[in-house]
Amino acid sequence: MPDLLTITDLVKHYPSGRGRVVHAVDGVSLSIGAGEVLGLVGESGSGKSTIGKCILRLTEPTSGRIVFDGTDVTHLSRRGMRPLRRDVHIVFQDPYSSLNPRFSIGQIVAEPLRQHRIASGRAATDKVCEMLERVGLRAQMRHRYPHELSGGQRQRVGLARALVCGPKLVVADEPVSALDVSVQASVLNLLTDLQRDMGFSCLFITHDLSVVEFLADRIAVMYLGSVVESGPREQIFTDPQHPYTRALLSAAPVPDPAAQRDRRRVVLSGDVPSPLAPPSGCRFHTRCPVAIDRCATVVPSLTPVRSPDHPVACHLVTEDSVPSLAQ
Ligand code: SF4
Ligand code: MG
Q1: Which UniProt keywords apply (predicted)?
Q2: Is the CB of residue 290 below 6 angstroms from any atom belonging to ligand 1?
Q3: According to the model, what pLDDT value does residue 1 have?
Q4: Does any ligand 1 atom lie closer than 6 A to the CB of residue 233?
């Protein structure tokens, strides 16, 4: 399938006082096909949200290239960005702060229709009612205000607002992690159903690998600003290659206890290093249970291992001599 979004060598560095620089994103290349869901996974501070913001130009990339639907959008003017803003929408993590408390639900969901001159008046109201029902809310809900809704209902409103223009791409940034565990599954199932019905592509950002197990077509794993492994979902879950991916997977709960035994738990020592001073060589070397001397000095490059669409950045994996990670 042709790529809808292609990101090449994206870098985002922020100045951080006293001449120091936060290396938020350091040379990430990704692509998302039409109708495809890419799960972007990593611990907090790995740069996932920054990538989402760069796509929507909520923050300016330091360097690199972003091509959306055949157009290089990296340096477009505000005016030139309009088609992108119509076709790409974001669902934010926090359903409490992302809805303006002064507007009714109907006004909030209608706002993108008005902004992009897609519909107004009666036609807009009809679209809003239809969209509310598609996300599992009653059309009457449009007269309510955000403070009258539960977290799960608010996130459904966030979805309705993101989808009302019929976007080509949805950036979902940890859309369920602020919700009660009891409602997370229903919102995830809803997003999955809507994605299949409406066919939009999705960049699904999460710190929790298990969240994308049933949703993503492909998965990219990030660590400290770089992608360390990416590939088709089944390959990532059944045959993970990078020691970091294995550690994330071993920590994820699985419904079948027998399967859990196969995923021997890999416990990582220490915290994620500061993106102000990322480690030399392989950035994971300070926590990697199988690091060798070379890892501290030589940066491993992403190299396909199992198949052309499954690249991994690890000296040991690309040398085809992966030791057991069991502890
Ligand atoms: Fe671990 Fe070295 Fe591989 Fe990095 S390159 S993941 S430190 S073995
Ligand atoms: Mg984030």
Answers
A1: ATP-binding, Nucleotide-binding, Transport
A2: yes
A3: 61
A4: no
Cβ of 312 closer than 6 Å to ligand 1, yes or no, is: no
Note whether 138 and 56 are within 8 A (CB). Answer: no
Domain contains 64: no
Q: Are 223 and 46 in contact (CB under 8 A)?
A: yes
CA-nearest residue for atom 8, ligand 1, is 291
Task: Say if ligand 1 is within 6 A of residue 179 CB.
Answer: no
Residue-wise pLDDT tens digits, 284-312: 999 999 999 999 999 999 999 989 999 99
Could you tell me if the CB of 310 is within 6 A of ligand 1? no
Task: Please name the residues in contact with 126: beta carbons below 8 A apart, sequence gap of 6 or more.
Answer: 119
Q: Which residues contact 309 (CB under 8 A, 6 or more apart)?
A: 218, 230, 231, 232
Whether 257 is in a domain gets the answer yes
Please give the residue range of the domain that contains residue 269: 240-327
Q: How many domains does the chain have?
A: 1
Residue 144 lies in a domain: no
The number of the ligand nearest the C-alpha atom of 287 reads 1
Please report the pLDDT score of residue 270 as a whole number: 80
Q: How many helices (H) and strands (E) does the chain have?
A: 10, 12
As a whole number, mean pLDDT of residues 217-235 equals 97
Cα angle, residue 53 at apex, residues 170 and 224 outer, rounded to 5°: 110
- Per residue in 73-91, pLDDT (tens digit) is 998 888 888 889 999 999 9
Q: Identify the nearest ligand to the CA of 177 by its number.
A: 2
This prediction's pTM: 0.92
Q: Is residue 281 part of a domain?
A: yes
Closest atom of ligand 1 to CA, residue 244: 6
Task: Tell me the two tokens of residue 71.
Answer: 């157009």
- In angstroms, rounded to a whole number, what is the distance separating the alpha carbons of residues 124 and 227? 41
- Kindly report, residue by residue over 272-284, the tens digit of the pLDDT: 899 999 999 999 9
CA 165 – CA 116 distance, rounded (Å): 8
315 close to ligand 1 (CB < 6 Angstrom): yes
